[in-house]
Recover the amino acids of this structure.
């Protein structure tokens, strides 16, 4: 079985994001692999280690620094990397989920033909969660999002899916299929130094986004990017009566 | 994993050594640099007014300023004004430049971001074939049969209680024919080597530097303006023995780099270096530089002040000490980067000579180490003959003069020895006390009332700490270890006798006493190394946490002016714009491709 894993390069989760010139500032800001993509890579590598999969290919879309993100995926255990190079911003400002899904579709249908596509459930920059479902729609194949457990079952997979109401168990009967990974699926491994050194020798292929013949124009226009307004100071009240009075008359949360 | 040369620490000294080694040896020696920061530069903090002499030696054919700007956006700004002020609480007096030691003349020097310079140097090193692995912390030094063999990286995936988690990976041994330690001041492996090989001749004395980066409106910005001050608030009288002062540098396009350095040999346990820094900013000579600006970054790091006397033996079988790890900072010039780079060059030359004359096939070819790592004494000899030694020897007595007699006499002595004797005075004022032992008991002092932060010019510690980008993976053992034989010191010595100075000197709020018990908030740690130095009885041993954690220092280029693009366009951007403009010629607006310079229009959305 061949698995294709999507890895996205995003602003590091620990960085305090700033707005500059009307948009999110990316210059000289630390960027690293999207945490949900790390979980997807970990799951793919585990499937390979348990001999269910034979090959894991990592795919990343973005500027030339994406090769670093791909190297991390390779160091975690992927076999090969594909880099679709573009200078368009991938945080929703320029490149949006439909275009990304179409690029994935082309790689899948015309090049790799994987049996399973693993993606993170959402990018922590755009927070859309749309590439997975859109890709499944374009490929006309089964999809399970927010996977918390993935098990091989018959010729498909048994996936536990997290919802607000509880966990669903879904049996994917035919492949290929798209699974997007949620937080509780696994804890990604550390990329060890020997593996990072070995990853340098693994092949990474670069494709220019403009040469793919896909319309990359965004469907939605970002009107405004602003920092959240600063939180107002809280106040101390003298007693419970004052609290009830304020909740009733000022905050208006009590009838 | 064997290498010919392993370099611990990706700062200016380590990177300079790796570059020089490759310039000398090409592919015939394998060189590896490891660094505990998540990227090269993320743990680099410095003022910094840079003397480029040794960098120009390393790259005689490169215009480093242009290349650093292209690669990182950071602009090396030539120093235009050198100001030295003595502050009183409400006033300031400028010391005319002609009375200042010649070492403080910054003509030909540049205001830079050392963090960004290191990122560029790392790129140069990688292009020359150096293997650089950030995110890996050297936890233990491998010493076998009295010879340094290399290091072992930190185990990762241990839980807070020390038990391995599912993600556990043991540390990896990196072995080399020669290991160069370039960890910066008070490096953790270096401290271990000092003990193992008895390298220290006299104690080192340190200063704690705390820094903020501000972005200010263009009208206030004076590119190349360099200011140092003494006096208020650290020194209130001319005999005050608290060593320290401030720095304030304007870097293009709109940054002001400010900070305070406090000598850690201070006596008053109630001194709070962070609060001294905050209140210093309110002084009428300082405030106008920062007003209406925004603080965008914060950090702290110790630096060496001991100078010549405190330099240990630099070599041992299998290893050498470089840069601030050895202690080459020139405290009168207030610069250590140029000597760090120079020491890297000297170490590389000595190492190259030693490894290629052994008559042994290099690891780059055989992938194994077949002979014991040599003791490269030539590095020590090169240092003795170098400008590093001569410049440090010349000013060897100045710091001790401050420590013994106070700031007024210290200044007079510094003037005397830099103008008149030029270091040729036949006596040596040796420094012989540990900074931790200089703290006096609390009963001789009273708590200092520091003003409350206003949130615009001055800030509380935790708000500022966010600006350092510091984080550590939550579930890992605490890396700040109370020494087993000193377990009683926090509650029986530090708190009752010294009023818990660690709750005040730590610039990250790591140490606090809750219900009379010590609490260590290790995830705040910015790796400044102050605690290991100033704790009463030195009861803390600083060890490395998991690699990749700690502060994330980097320069933010955001500008707030409307014509931001022009203010800031580096030549790289200008080239790109020119190319785009040519491309757009003759096209209607519909045909212009989506480019990064797109305007984002915002509408007031009413009544939806």
């Amino acid at each position: 079985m061949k698995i294709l894993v999507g890895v996205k390069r995003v602003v590091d989760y620990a960085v305090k994001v700033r707005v500059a010139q009307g948009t999110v500032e990316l210059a000289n800001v630390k960027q690293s692999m999207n945490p949900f993509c790390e979980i997807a890579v970990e799951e793919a590598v585990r499937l390979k280690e348990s001999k269910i999969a034979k090959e894991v290919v990592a795919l990343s879309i973005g500027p030339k620094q994406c090769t670093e993100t791909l190297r991390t995926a390779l160091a975690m255990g992927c076999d090969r990397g594909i880099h679709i190079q573009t200078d368009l911003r991938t945080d929703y400002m320029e490149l949006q989920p439909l275009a990304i899904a179409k690029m994935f579709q082309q790689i899948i249908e015309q090049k790799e033909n994987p049996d399973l596509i693993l993606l993170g459930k959402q990018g922590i920059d755009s927070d859309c969660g749309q590439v997975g479902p859109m890709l499944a729609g374009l490929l006309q194949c089964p999809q399970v999002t927010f996977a918390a457990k993935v098990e091989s079952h018959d010729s498909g997979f048994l996936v536990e899916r997290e919802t607000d109401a509880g966990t669903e168990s879904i049996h994917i009967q035919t492949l290929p299929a798209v699974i997007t990974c949620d937080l509780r699926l696994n804890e990604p491994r550390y990329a060890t130094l020997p593996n990072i050194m070995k990853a340098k020798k693994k092949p990474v292929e670069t494709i220019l986004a403009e040469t793919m013949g896909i319309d990359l124009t965004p469907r939605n226009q970002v009107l405004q990017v602003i920092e959240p307004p600063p939180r107002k100071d809280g106040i101390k009240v003298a007693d419970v009566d004052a609290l009830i009075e304020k909740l009733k008359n000022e905050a208006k949360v009590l009838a | 994993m064997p290498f010919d040369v392993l370099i611990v620490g990706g700062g200016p000294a380590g990177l300079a050594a790796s570059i020089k080694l490759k310039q000398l040896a090409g592919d015939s020696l394998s060189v590896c640099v490891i660094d505990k920061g998540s990227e090269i530069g993320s743990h680099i903090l410095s003022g910094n007014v840079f003397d480029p002499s040794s960098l120009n030696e390393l790259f005689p054919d490169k215009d480093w300023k242009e290349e650093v700007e292209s690669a990182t956006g950071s602009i090396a700004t030539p120093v235009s004004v050198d100001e030295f002020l003595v502050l009183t609480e409400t006033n300031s007096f400028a010391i005319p430049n002609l009375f200042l030691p010649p070492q403080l003349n910054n003509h030909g020097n540049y205001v830079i971001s050392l963090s960004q310079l290191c990122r560029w140097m790392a790129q140069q090193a990688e292009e020359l074939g150096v293997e650089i692995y950030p995110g890996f912390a050297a936890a233990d030094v491998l010493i076998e049969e009295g010879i340094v063999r290399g290091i072992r990286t930190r185990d990762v995936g241990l839980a807070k209680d020390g038990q391995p988690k599912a993600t556990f990976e043991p540390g990896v041994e990196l072995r080399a024919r020669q290991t160069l330690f370039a960890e910066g001041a008070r490096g953790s492996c270096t401290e271990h080597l000092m003990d193992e090989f008895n390298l220290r001749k006299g104690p080192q004395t340190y200063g704690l530097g705390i820094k903020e980066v501000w972005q200010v409106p263009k009208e206030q910005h004076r590119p190349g303006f360099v200011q140092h001050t003494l006096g208020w608030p650290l020194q209130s009288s001319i005999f005050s023995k608290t060593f320290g002062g401030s720095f304030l540098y304007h870097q293009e396009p709109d940054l002001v780099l400010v900070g305070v350095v406090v000598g850690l040999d201070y006596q008053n346990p109630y001194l709070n270096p962070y609060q001294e820094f905050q209140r210093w900013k309110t002084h009428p000579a300082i405030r106008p530089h920062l007003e209406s600006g925004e603080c965008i970054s914060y950090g702290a790091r110790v630096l060496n002040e001991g100078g010549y006397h405190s330099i240990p033996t630099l070599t041992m079988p299998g290893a050498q000490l470089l840069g601030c790890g050895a202690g080459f900072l020139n405290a009168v010039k207030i610069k250590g980067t140029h000597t760090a780079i120079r020491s890297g060059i000297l170490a590389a030359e000595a190492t190259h000579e030693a490894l290629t004359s052994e008559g042994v096939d290099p690891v780059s070819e055989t992938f194994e180490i077949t002979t014991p790592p040599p003791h490269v004494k030539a590095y020590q000899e090169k240092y003795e003959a170098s400008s590093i030694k001569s410049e440090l020897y010349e000013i060897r007595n100045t710091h001790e003069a401050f420590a013994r007699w106070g700031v007024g006499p210290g200044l007079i002595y510094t003037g005397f020895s830099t103008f008149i004797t030029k270091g040729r005075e036949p006596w040596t004022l040796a420094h012989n006390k540990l900074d931790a032992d200089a703290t006096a008991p609390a009963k001789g002092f009273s708590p200092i009332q520091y003003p409350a932060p206003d949130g615009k010019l001055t800030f509380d510690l935790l708000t500022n700490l966010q600006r350092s980008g510091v984080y550590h993976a939550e579930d890992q053992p605490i890396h700040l270890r109370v020494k087993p034989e000193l377990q009683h010191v926090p509650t029986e010595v530090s708190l009752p006798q010294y009023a818990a100075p660690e709750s005040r000197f730590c610039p990250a709020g790591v140490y606090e006493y809750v219900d009379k018990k010590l609490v260590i908030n290790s995830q705040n740690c910015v790796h400044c190394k102050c605690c290991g130095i100033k704790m009463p009885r030195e009861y803390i041993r600083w060890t490395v946490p998991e690699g990749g954690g700690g502060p994330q220092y980097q320069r933010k280029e955001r500008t707030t002016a409307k014509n931001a693009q022009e203010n800031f366009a580096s030549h790289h951007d200008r080239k790109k714009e020119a190319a785009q403009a040519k491309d757009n010629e003759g096209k209607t607006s519909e045909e212009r491709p989506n480019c990064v310079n797109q305007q984002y229009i915002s509408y007031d959305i009413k009544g939806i």
User: Anything to note?
Assistant: The first strand of chain A starts at residue 2 and ends at 6. The helical segments of chain A are 35-49, 66-76, 97-112, 131-139, 193-199, 240-249. The first helix of chain A runs from residue 35 to 49. The mean pLDDT of chain A is 93.
